[in-house]
Write a structure and sequence with these properties.
By secondary structure, this protein is α/β, with parallel strands linked by helices. Helices cover 28% and strands 27% of the residues. The chain has a nine-stranded mixed β-sheet with strand order 2-1-3-4-9-8-7-5-6, sandwiched between helices.
Length: 230
């Protein structure tokens, strides 16, 4: 399998997704927009992973590469290719398909539960309740044809699926202790007390078992969207 990753900042990498790729002897290529905005041909990869970042999908004036990235993401989804969007990546999928992205009612930073929304036999099934890692301030409307997969108390749209093999996650299942440390180090100014914002101490006190749990769920998501891929 050939995986292409869209990475927006140096401190938000693929986390546990890289271990999953290595365990399957997959090749991984990356577009690092903070270095170079060149994108591969659609025929050059089998799975697209769109990572997070502190920018907004609406920052096209300041970050003109967002225009080409959205077009690329839309083409990948419409081709039926497996696509996974994480946080900003989910917002990019939504925006590329015509949905609105805007500031959410609450920032969510830390470990908070998400809840499954219904049981569509043609969509990925999340656990009824599972605690996951969040770091986002914006949210999105669901694009046309999307199936809502998960919600939280702070945000009604936490995960969605388009077609058989494209999933957007507002939260982070790929996070490891190392990647959480990198987020805290680079974005600690966002840790302003609020109903759904945990302190740095709370973030750093999460046990290894919590990370292992979300990483297992990430493996399930990846296995689902690639179940008929090369």
């Amino acid at each position: 399998m050939r995986i292409h990753v869209l990475q927006h900042v140096a401190f938000e990498g693929p986390g546990s997704i890289l271990s999953w790729a290595q365990s399957r002897s997959a090749t991984v290529t990356t577009t690092r927009f903070f270095e170079n905005a060149s994108l591969p041909e659609q025929s050059a990869f089998d799975l697209l992973v769109v990572l997070g970042g502190p920018m907004s999908v609406n920052d096209e004036a300041e970050l003109p590469w967002l225009v080409g990235e959205k077009r690329f993401v839309r083409e990948s989804v419409e081709s039926g290719k497996p696509v996974l969007g994480i946080c900003l990546g989910a917002q990019l999928i939504a925006s590329s398909l015509g949905a609105r992205v805007y500031p959410g009612p609450h920032k969510e930073i830390g470990w908070f539960p998400v809840y499954a929304c219904g049981r569509d036999p043609d969509a990925f099934a999340f656990p009824d309740r599972t605690e996951v890692f969040h770091w986002h301030g914006e949210t999105f409307d669901l694009p046309g044809g999307a199936v809502r997969l998960a919600r939280s108390d702070a945000c009604p749209h936490q995960a969605f699926q388009i077609g058989a093999r494209a999933i957007g996650l507002q939260f982070h299942l790929e996070t490891t202790p190392e990647s959480a440390d990198a987020l805290i180090a680079n974005c600690c100014r966002e840790l302003v007390p609020a109903p759904y914002v945990q302190s740095e101490q709370q973030l750093r006190s999460a046990p290894a078992s919590r990370y292992a749990g979300i990483n297992r769920l990430m493996t399930s998501v990846l296995a689902y969207i690639t179940r008929t891929a090369v």
